[in-house]
């Protein structure tokens, strides 16, 4: 899958290896990608030297296609969950496009965070928290009324 970056510079963590010899970083929000390289290049346009993330996917870390509910189904958008880790592998390269523009291509591998909570789990925990708080408040009110009587 591909992701185009226009006007953004990747942090140094993608360029220099850390103490473990790894280059990469975490995407904190939903990560939008596409199956169509041309779509990603459009998102990277408008920059003097656009960047294209060329993301290798594995059997486990797959994103979710939202084509069926997208306003732009022809973009073939694939979403990855928050906290997905992008690890640089191989060397970046410069490709020359048909129109003569150059694009920096960075090969990455994505590891989706499968331990993230679903929205249903988050709502369930919040509901439990609110119900427990309400039960505690009711208990305190009953005790206060009992002391008054």
Automatic annotation (TrEMBL):
Pfam families: ADPrib_exo_Tox. It comes from the Eukaryota. GO terms for cellular component: extracellular region. Signal peptide: none annotated. Residues 26-82 form the ADP ribosyltransferase domain. Coiled coil: none annotated. SUPFAM superfamilies: ADP-ribosylation. This is ADP ribosyltransferase domain-containing protein. It comes from Hemiselmis tepida.
């Amino acid at each position: 899958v591909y992701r185009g970056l226009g006007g953004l510079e990747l942090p140094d963590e993608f360029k220099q290896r850390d103490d473990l010899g790894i280059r990469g970083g975490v995407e904190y929000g939903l990560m939008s990608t596409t199956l169509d390289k041309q779509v990603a290049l459009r998102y990277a346009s408008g920059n003097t030297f656009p960047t294209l993330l060329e993301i290798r996917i594995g059997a486990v870390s797959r994103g979710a296609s939202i084509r069926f509910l997208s306003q732009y189904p022809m973009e073939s958008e694939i979403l990855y969950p928050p906290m997905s880790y992008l690890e640089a592998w191989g060397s970046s390269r410069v490709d020359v496009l048909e129109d003569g523009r150059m694009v920096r291509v960075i090969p990455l591998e994505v590891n989706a965070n499968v331990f993230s909570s679903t929205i249903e789990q988050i709502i369930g925990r919040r509901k439990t928290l609110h119900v427990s708080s309400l039960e505690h408040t009711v208990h305190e009110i009953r005790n206060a009324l009992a002391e008054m009587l």
